[in-house]
Amino acid sequence: MRLKNIRNLFLSLALLAVVALVSYKIGQGNKIIPSTLGQFDLSLMWKVKDKLSTDFLEKDDMDNVKMKYGAIQGMVASLGDPYTVFLPPEENKSANEDLAGEFGGVGISLGYSKDGILAVVSPLSGTPADKAGIKAGDLILKIVDKKNNIEKETTGISLNEAVSLIRGEIGTEVVLTMYRESNQKRFESVLKRDNIEVPGVELEWLTVDNKKIAWVKMSKFSEDLFTKWNEIVTMINNEKKISGSNYAGIILDLRNNPGGYLQASVVVASDFIKDGVIVKQESTKGITQTYNIEKNRGNLLNDKLVVLINGGSASASEILAGALHDYKRASLVGVKTFGKGTVQQPEDFNDGSGLHLTIARWLLPSGKNIHKEGISPDIEIVESTDSAQKDVQLEKAKEVVLEK
Questions:
Q1: Burial of residue 8, with CB atoms counted within 10 A of its CB: 0-12 exposed, 13-18 middle, 19 or more buried
Q2: Using CA atoms in the order 327, 329, 335, 337, what is the torsion angle rounded to 10 degrees?
Q3: Among candidates 304, 206, 320, 343, which has minimal Cα distance to 265?
Q4: Do residues 188 and 239 share a domain?
Q5: pTM across the whole model
Q6: Alpha helices in 101-158 (DSSP H)
Q7: SS in 3 state form for 315-381?
């Protein structure tokens, strides 16, 4: 009798274990996760996963890690915001290299047109894209990676996928089918990939009528700008002492600057503006974060300043140009900027993947948000389509600096 009771006890425990396991499996198959947007039912996803596992012909091609990343990417993409993206480890590594200022590729900063078409935000100076004559605003219709024999139409493509297709082994070629709206022409550009090193900021001295002008070229608000900007400010102030009355002022060139670290734009603005708000971030939760002038800067408060902008000036470069304009600190010369007025926050995960999440819209000191609108110049000068001709925008900026 005792042995029978023990056997029944083990049988009962075994049955309980089976019930618990079945309940766990059912829970997985009909998983409902609490969410700030309500119940998040994943039961259909698990059903599809089970169906693939049992009936998919090429089971050897099934990769659970890739499927996991693909599911997350699809969820994020469903938001319809091209700047909110989930990046698997390799693509997240490329994005971090981009912000650091050095990477392999052809030298194109990517974004989207107002119609959601993949577009060139800016070609980076001296890169294969720049040498091939690709311009800010050119639309990219197709990407052909010759090395890996991949051909991809760009309709609905994400930024990270486009970047991964365009980047590749140095010396190999990528072919871009482009469309330029200004002349309504479709063309192909064959680009040989190269190592892309992008200095955040450079200084060149111009001499016009015996007057010295500091031409500060900011190609990107990358990591190196935080230290190099201070060096450039020192060089400008040293030259002012030497040149005296022959020093005319500064041309701050933000053309084809796709942005980068927002805080870097605040640092630069703080040397030109004495006091006040540079930019406000307004989140969907109604929380506003204000970025004010950094104290103990103001090293260039009285220098005459002209800012060059074009359709490749985006994001943090628009914040800087907009703040300088709102405070009437600088004249803007060129053409309307790109118009990216949202803020992305990057977050890296333990497996190397990352999420770039749109967390806020930014507002100029005037309270204006320029998303999809851009900033208009005070003096509109359309750049020449002939690369052999003078830089007409820069020539106009020189004139403005020299005006009394």
A1: exposed
A2: -50
A3: 320
A4: no
A5: 0.66
A6: 128-131
A7: CHHHHHHHHHHHCCCCEEEECCCCCCCEEEEEEECCCCCEEEEEEEEEECCCCCCCCCCCCCCCEEC
Look up the CATH number of the domain holding residue 188: 2.30.42.10
Average pLDDT along the chain, 404 residues, taken 10 residues at a time: 35 30 37 61 88 87 89 90 87 69 74 85 85 91 90 87 85 94 91 83 94 94 88 97 96 92 94 96 83 94 97 93 97 95 89 91 92 94 69 95 88
End position of a domain, from candidates 162, 197, 232: 197
353 and 381 co-located in one domain: yes
Do 191 and 324 fall into the same domain?
A: no
Assess whether 315 carries a catalytic annotation: yes
Residues 31, 49: Cα–Cα separation, whole Å: 13
Looking at the structure of the chain, the number of domains it has is 2
Dump the DSSP string for 270-286.
Answer: TTT--SSEEEEEEETTS
Are 388 and 247 within one domain? yes
**Annotated catalytic residue, options 315, 317, 331, 353:** 315
Domain span at residue 179 reads 103-197
- Termini Cα distance of the chain: 111
What three-state secondary structure class fits 44?
helix
Q: Is 159 helix (H, G, I), strand (E, B) or coil?
A: helix
Catalytic residue, chosen from 326, 331, 353, 396, is 326
Q: Is residue 49 part of a domain?
A: no
User: For residues 68 and 56, what is the distance between their CA atoms, to the nearest angstrom?
Assistant: 17
- Amino acid symbol at 312: G
Please identify which residue in the block is written with the tokens 């790109």.
338
Residues 97-151: tens digit of each pLDDT:
665 555 568 988 888 887 889 998 878 778 899 999 998 889 999 999 988 889 9
Ranges of beta strands (E only) in 29-170 are: 32-33, 40-41, 85-87, 102-105, 108-112, 118-123, 139-145, 150-153
Give the single-character DSSP code of 246: G
Chain segment 171-186, per-residue pLDDT in tens:
899 999 999 988 889 9
Asked if 205 and 235 count as a contact pair (C-beta separation under 8 A), the reply is: no
Catalytic entry in 49, 280, 340, 398: 340
Is residue 323 within 8 A of residue 278, CB to CB? The reply is yes
3-class state of residue 214 by DSSP: strand
